[in-house]
Amino acid sequence: MKTALVCGAGGFIGSHLVKKLKGEGFWVRGVDLKYPEYSPTTADEFVAGDLRDPLVCQKILDRNFDEVFQLAADMGGAGYIFTGEHDADVMHNSAQINLNMTYYSQKAGVKKIFYSSSACIYPAYNQVDPANPKCSEDSAYPAEPDSEYGWEKLFSERLYLSFHRNYNLNIRIARFHNIFGPEGTWRGGKEKAPAAICRKVAETPDGGEIEVWGDGQQTRSFLFIDECLEGVRRLMDSDFIGPVNIGSEEMVSINHLAEMVMDVAGKKLSIKHVEGPNGVRGRNSDNHLIKKELGWQPTKPLRAGLEQTYLWISEQVKGQK
What we know:
alpha/beta, Rossmann fold
């Protein structure tokens, strides 16, 4: 039986990944500070531990795993990343995790390790036009991420690539573009745009009003969780190291995203634009490289993913009442 280690297994993507790996026949060890919030973990073994601690990393890497997935990070949506209030923690915590995981994975002789980077590494100067952002993999340099979160992700990409060059650590790197779906954070300040809007629409009676940060003309693309995990599997099964984008090319404005959620909910609501963190003006996944190297691209329309996500979040909102 193949073995896998999932770091960040208590988080949104990590908990879904554990389920996928179990479905593929892996024996899975999960590790995180906390257990998954919305459903029990399906991992064969779950270690509640802090990956900033070298002793924890040594403990969990007690064998040469077939596959290691390093998803653990101090992160959240725009309300967490772009305020500037969490910059030191975001950089220190995530960098410490990756410094530990590269070093001890190499020592343990893991066969393959995946690192989840982010679209936030792309330069702000290429994302000022909401209609024409540039996010091809080769556009990452000269570097100018729009947040310290993005700088740490870029540093860690280089860290993994350095361990590949110097110690033959077998790595795979993907840059995720706004992954969403059921069982993701939907309240509390760390939620991302699709979940935040689904929550606001679910909480607001028909004919009411929801708030959107900024003018709503900023653009993004959003990838459903199942598609994300399929992209990760394709990358892990290939000989391509990356970095490569894993995201959707279906770019929408935040206003349009809100309108799609309202349509899914069958509600007519008005939008009030308020001040708040926006990030870059435009961002969209460029999938030319993943099509070329892996012969793959996502196929699920944004609306289909929103239908599943809204249904789940609306049930959570009802459960609060």
